[in-house]
Amino acid sequence: MSSTELAVTVPEEKPKVATGGTSGVKSFLSGGFGGMCLVAAGHPLDLLKVRMQTSTQYKSTMDCLRKTLAESGIRGMYRGMAAPLVGATPVFAICFWGYDQGQKIMRYAYNLSPTDKLSTNQILFAGGFSAIPTTAVMAPMERIKCTLQVGAANSAGVAYKGPADAAMGIIRTGGLRSLFKGTCATLLRDVPGSVAYFGAYEFIKKSLTSQSAGQGSISPLAIVTAGGLAGMANWAVAIPPDVLKSRLQTAPEGRYSGVRQVFVEMMRAEGPGALFRGIGPAMLRAFPANAACFLGVELSLQFMNSLW
């Protein structure tokens, strides 16, 4: 038999494994730790943001700061912190887990291997997807936090003592459903916000390091820079729906039928500028809080990767 007649067997190419480079468990744990870092670093400015969004008595961020300090001192700057601190672990754990799952969906859909880099559009999809599972936990936590931050009182006129007391008061007044008031507004805020958040973080970090999340070592300076700017990108997009959410969640029971009514009445009474109320403290908070968040996420991922 001549060589031209020999049958040449070519091994069949194995399909690529459609999974991401980071396990869901690691994404979950690192996200929770990052969320705790974010709350610890950014809560005082978040309090100023919510107060400015829900009241017209403050002329500026500094005016809000002075009046808050005069009213309740430094301790008052951390009012309502217990709710987001307790909720930060599951909320951000689910957020970063959702982001990881969004990447896995893209890898599966496009038959990409763990070593293949995702395109910008695929990263943006994963970021937006992360907001969907997060909202189920985020909405009631935001409802309690905002209620405490504006110093709301119960039916007897006594200010709530803490997150548990506020939660029970909200349920007594409007039922369990009231605890989830603002869920649609939260989703309206977090889907585009998360697209900007993760998209900006990955773009800036890759520009600085040519690395994707969770892959190899990265300098703390690069993490802080990318994380802080990502937080600012998030709020540049999310502040208008966040104003609507804060107004809806802190209003008396039955005041609004939904986020649409909040928007219509706000435009009629205060104009478009009201949608950006609180953007000063939001932006001031965004850089340090989110720098701390992503620093916690990346360093905890590196620690876990060194263990298993």
TrEMBL record:
The GO molecular function terms of this record are: O-acyl-L-carnitine transmembrane transporter activity
Output the superkingdom of the source species.
Eukaryota
Q: Does the keyword Transmembrane helix apply?
A: yes
Q: Which InterPro entries match?
A: MCP_dom_sf, MCP_transmembrane, Mitochondrial_Carrier
Q: Which GO terms describe its cellular component?
A: mitochondrial membrane
Report the record's Gene Ontology biological process terms: carnitine transmembrane transport; mitochondrial transport
Solcar repeat positions: 22-105, 118-207, 218-303
What PROSITE patterns does this protein map onto?
Answer: SOLCAR
Topology in the lipid bilayer: Multi-pass membrane protein
**Protein's UniProt keywords contain NAD:** no
User: Which parts of the chain span the membrane according to its record?
Assistant: none
The UniProt family comment states: Belongs to the mitochondrial carrier (TC 2.A.29) family.
Could you tell me what this protein is called? Carnitine transporter
**What is the scientific name of the source organism?**
Coemansia spiralis
